[in-house]
Amino acid sequence: MEIFGIRFLGLTTENGHKLLLTFGFFVVFFIVRYGLTAVSGLLIRGRKNEQSRFWIQQTVSLVLAILLIAGFLSIWFDDPERLATVLGFVSAGLAFALQKVITSIAAYFVILRGQVFRVGDRILMSGVRGDVIALGFTRTTIMEMGQPPGERPDDPNVWVKSRQFTGRIVTVTNDKIFENPVFNYSRDFPFIWEELSLPIKYNGNRRRAEEIFLAIVERHAIHEDEINQETLEKMQREYYVSRKDLKPRIYYRLTDNWIEMNARFLTREHGSRDRKDKMSREILDAFEAENIEIATASFEVLGTTSIRLVNDGTNGKIQ
């Protein structure tokens, strides 16, 4: 093609026509994208069901991706034979150069199809704990949270000593689901079992301490009647969870220094720290009213000996 006496290398009338069509297609595509995004926003607005919001967003993303690829190929590769040849070379090159990207895209469909997690779920993925706030074709975005003492350490370390947000946004490539286990706190059973430990002196009133401890835990724990019946039946049918495991219990462990009482109870995947904080405050008040002491690792000195330094002029002697 020649414009103003300048011959453009590789630019023919046919290619110029396709460039104009491509430009027009992208204009139409962005208009359609804006329209679909607006419609999906109206559908999502007011919905409390996180699963419905998740699938609406993912459906819009997939439809837009298919439209973009189909439109671009239709303009530039209208000849089926040429399309097959070009796709062969391109796919071979991409498979070699973009292995991680292709694996991540494949993982995206596995996440959708296998219900590994969805937006809003609380997960641990590739060492990152937190809530999923976005799921893309290649990456998952997580609002990071800390971890309680006793859990295996993160790399990098997290300064928040509980399952609460740190404020950091972490992106993890989707292909990590093929390499590492994914822990989901929310998918089928939106509850977790928590534990709270108390050290009680051997010579203390342990029976009264247990009564107070269990009563406070039962007041704040999730009970069987608060769980959706369908969810409960599914957990029993598919995961063999017994109903007796849902009731709060106190377990004893004997140590060299004290009796360790461990309360095991059911709570939601969010708000666990608030529940344990309320329990701890009420336990302290109740124990104080009953004169029950919590054991500590302090030491009590019961007696002393006198030391006298005598100097005989040659060597000091201690008596």
> Which spans have pLDDT < 50 for at least 5 consecutive residues?
none
Report the helical percentage.
Answer: 40-55%
Query: Could you give a short account of the major beta sheet?
Result: 5 strands, antiparallel
- Number of extended strands: 12
* Mean pLDDT rating: 79
Report, as a whole number of angstroms, the end-to-end distance. 111 Å
Query: Under the CATH scheme, which class of the largest domain?
Result: Alpha Beta
Descriptive overview:
There is one protein chain. This protein is of the alpha+beta class and 319 residues long. The chain contains seven helices and twelve strands. It has a five-stranded antiparallel beta sheet with strand order 6-5-4-3-7, with no helix packed on it. β3 (122-125) and β4 form a beta hairpin. It is elongated, with a radius of gyration of 32 Å.
Topology diagram in text:
Blueprint: E1 2-3, E2 6-7, H1 13-44, H2 50-76, H3 80-97, H4 99-114, E3 122-125, E4 128-135, E5 139-145, E6 165-173, E7 182-184, E8 191-200, H5 206-220, H6 229-239, E9 249-254, E10 259-268, H7 272-290, E11 309-311, E12 316-318
Antiparallel strand pairs: 1-2, 3-4, 3-7, 4-5, 5-6, 8-10, 9-10, 11-12
Describe what is shown at a glance.
The chain has 319 residues and is of the alpha+beta class. It is built from 7 helices and 12 strands.
